[in-house]
């Protein structure tokens, strides 16, 4: 059973972290183009693709460029309620990422692939391991403490976040995750409350 985790970049010129997690062993790489990413996903035949990117717009918005006062989804409000920091989907740099995420989800679902939105920073908060801003060695050690094998000190922040995404995908398949918000615009997160750092 393989799970793919993606720390998606907003544009193809920036690296996307890619992780295949099987039997708690992570294989990571950096990919750039949608074509390259989709080829690797198809080859690994995952049960779920867990993507760190908004995969939906706030209800009431017709497009990411539309100028309205609607900026938050129910899942975003739930993150706020739990004190988990995030960037709203309509914030400048998030717009391209949101667009890319929605398009990727559409392609995957057309191929009968399950795509879920995840948020590695928030998941790390809930699990109680350090985010990348605290240092990559600390994040790597936190992931290893969860039982994930195959990590090394050469891995980039994008790869380690992709590993976190894949781990949340595993929890989702095992029924050990919850969805913040509605099923159509929700963020899948580990069960539990945010733990103090």
Describe this protein's structure.
This protein has a single domain, classed as Ribonuclease H-like superfamily/Ribonuclease H (Nucleotidyltransferase, domain 5, 2-Layer Sandwich). Helices cover 37% and strands 18% of the residues. It contains six helices and seven strands, in the order βββαβααβαααββ. It has helices at residues 34-44, 74-81, 92-110, 120-127, 136-145, 157-173; strands spanning 2-7, 16-22, 25-31, 48-51, 115-117, 177-180, 187-190. The model has no long low-confidence stretch (mean pLDDT 92).
Offer a concise description of the structure.
The protein is of the alpha/beta class and 197 residues long.
> Termini separation (Å)?
32 Å
Radius of gyration: 16 Å
Give the SSE string.
EEEHEHHEHHHEE
CATH topology: Nucleotidyltransferase, domain 5
CATH class: Alpha Beta
Main sheet makeup: 5 strands, mixed
Can you count the beta strands? Answer: 7
CATH architecture: 2-Layer Sandwich
Helix/sheet category:
alpha/beta
- Determine the number of helices (DSSP H or I, runs of at least 4 residues): 6
Which of globular, elongated, flat, extended, rod-shaped describes the shape?
Answer: globular
Give the name of the CATH superfamily.
Answer: Ribonuclease H-like superfamily/Ribonuclease H
Mean of pLDDT: 92
Tally of distinct domains: 1
What keyword list fits this structure?
197 residues, alpha/beta, Nucleotidyltransferase, domain 5, five-stranded mixed sheet, two-stranded antiparallel sheet, 6 helices
How are the SSEs placed, and which strands pair?
Layout: E1 2-7, E2 16-22, E3 25-31, H1 34-44, E4 48-51, H2 74-81, H3 92-110, E5 115-117, H4 120-127, H5 136-145, H6 157-173, E6 177-180, E7 187-190
Parallel strand pairs: 1-4, 4-5
Antiparallel strand pairs: 1-2, 2-3, 6-7
């Amino acid at each position: 059973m393989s799970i793919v985790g993606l720390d998606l970049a907003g544009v193809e010129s920036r690296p996307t972290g890619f992780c295949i997690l099987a039997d708690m062993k992570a294989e990571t790489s950096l990919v750039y183009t949608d074509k390259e990413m989709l080829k690797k996903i198809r080859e690994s035949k995952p049960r779920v693709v867990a993507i760190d990117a908004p995969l939906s717009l706030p209800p009431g918005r017709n497009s990411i460029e539309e100028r309205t006062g609607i900026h938050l989804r129910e899942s975003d409000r739930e993150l706020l309620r739990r004190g988990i920091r995030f960037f709203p989907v309509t914030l400048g740099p998030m717009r391209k990422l949101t667009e890319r995420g929605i398009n990727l989800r559409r392609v995957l679902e057309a191929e009968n692939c399950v795509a879920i939105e995840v948020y590695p920073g928030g998941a790390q908060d809930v699990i109680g391991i350090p985010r990348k801003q605290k240092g990559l060695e600390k994040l790597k050690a936190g992931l290893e403490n969860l039982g994930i094998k195959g990590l090394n000190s050469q891995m980039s922040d994008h790869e380690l976040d992709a590993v976190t995404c894949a781990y949340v995908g595993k929890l989702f398949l095992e029924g050990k995750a919850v969805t913040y918000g509605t099923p159509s615009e929700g963020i899948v997160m580990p069960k539990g409350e945010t733990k103090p750092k």
